[in-house]
Design goal:
The structure holds two protein chains of two kinds.
Chain A (H helix, E strand, L loop, with lengths): L1 H20 L3 H21 L3 H26 L11 H25 L15 H9 L3 H32 L7 H8 L1
Chain B lengths: L1 H32 L15 H11 L10 H17 L9 E4 L2 E4 L8 H22 L3 H32 L4 H11 L2 H4 L1 H14 L11 H4 L9 H26 L15 H27 L7 H30 L1
Antiparallel strand pairs in B: 1-2
The chains are: A mainly alpha, B mainly alpha.
Amino acid sequence: MLALFYLFAAISVISALIVVSARSPINSVIALVVCFLSIAGHYVLLNAQFLAMVHIIVYTGAIMVLFLFVIMLLNLNKATEPMKSLGTRIAAVVAGGLFFLTLVAAIRHGITVRPSNEFDAGVGLVRSVGMSLFNEFLLPFEVSSVLFLSAMVGVVMLGKKEAVLAASSAPVEPLTAAELERRKA
Amino acid sequence: MITTAIFLLVLFVVTLTVAAYSTYGERKVAAFLQDRIGPNRAGPFGILQPLADGGKMFMKEDFVPATANRKLFFLGPAIAMTTALLTGVVIPWGGELTVFGTTLNLQGTDPEIGILYVFAMVSIGVYGIMLGGWASNNKFALLGAVRAAAQMVSYELGMGLSIVALVMLTGTLSLSGIVEHQIAHGWGIIQQPLGFLIFIVCAFAETNRAPFDMPECETELVGGYHTEFSSMKLGFFLFAEYTNMFISSAVIATLYFGGYHVPGLDKLGLDPNLATIIGVGAMFAKTFFFIFFFMWVRWSIPRFRFDQLMNLGWKTLIPLGIFNIVLTGSIYYLLK
């Protein structure tokens, strides 16, 4: 089991590094897919089968497919690395350094901490996930579903708006010579 | 452990054999529906045709276009075939078989979330087509790949919604649990007729079968996502489609037609082993019927247009799926 953990951990870390270092976006996306799959492996090791499968279906199967879809449609195969301005670079270094400091400060004392209660092997099964979602975390769960609904309505509204705009701007398009002749007559 | 390994090996061989003979079956069914004879040269009734086809695939030149992305070009068919073969593990092919005192369960593994595992494998399977199509560096292949991705993501939603209603009734996500519930309370098709209809339409779209085979539509896209593929790489793409068809048929039989259940068999008082073997036979008979159904539809109904496909998925099947959930919930609540 421990060997499996180290295997998945190595795959996760290496693929995550490839995600940020790969020059071609498509390789980044594939590395991210591998990273997500190895994280699903971690979930299975913790006996959280439900989480593992939902993770694969939602992230690997839907979101990453859309990423790939966009990259394919825009044909972003070329490695484009626009140079950032000096201010952006300084800001990035400062932000990254602060984040690193926070991480070190958080982990420095955290390493020796042991979990106070025993690991419950049933915590990730469907029944316990459902129980905690619909009892303890009912309000956040419902609120997040409203958030999703509003996002969906927003997307539909934006899509409709553009369609209406396109339809209303259609007559402004230059008319063909034959059409102009017809209108004059 | 050993018995499971042997079972998985047998399952692997059976899956490949059924997929290979589905290609033969497809050509015979097509011939029958078009009033032709079909393949009859290799062996009696052309029974050796799949072997001849497979041998031919291996012998052909494995050509890779100069502008293709070689790694992804190789990875595409590999992913398609692997994910197609992985799904059969969670399907309960039969009850329990007792051989020399050891009990053998005719299911590779029975995770609590069996049906979600099937969905996960289906959703990974789209990468094979997408990467293969994109790596070919050919506009027809790219269009086929993009169509496949859009189609599969859209129809996964309808499929998921049809399953939600079934899971509400059975109260479990485990495939063997769903079969046991059907044995006790009647088959899924009786309890969920609308859900079955949505599921089977989505299954056609997920397996890229006609009338939803836009990703490889030859009148528009030459060969679609596998235009540039040749030799066994093409063979793997085609083979993955037939494997997916076999697995989808088995899932349909499991979810809506009682799996290995034969009504009235338990009243005959047969030997448990014999009953199990009859159950496995019933499971395969149901599966083969749906494979035939897939072919029947392919050679009877013309292809949809892509916008019609999207309209059907988003504006018909998803609302119908939600309606089915509400309907199932209300009936369940009223009867309880």
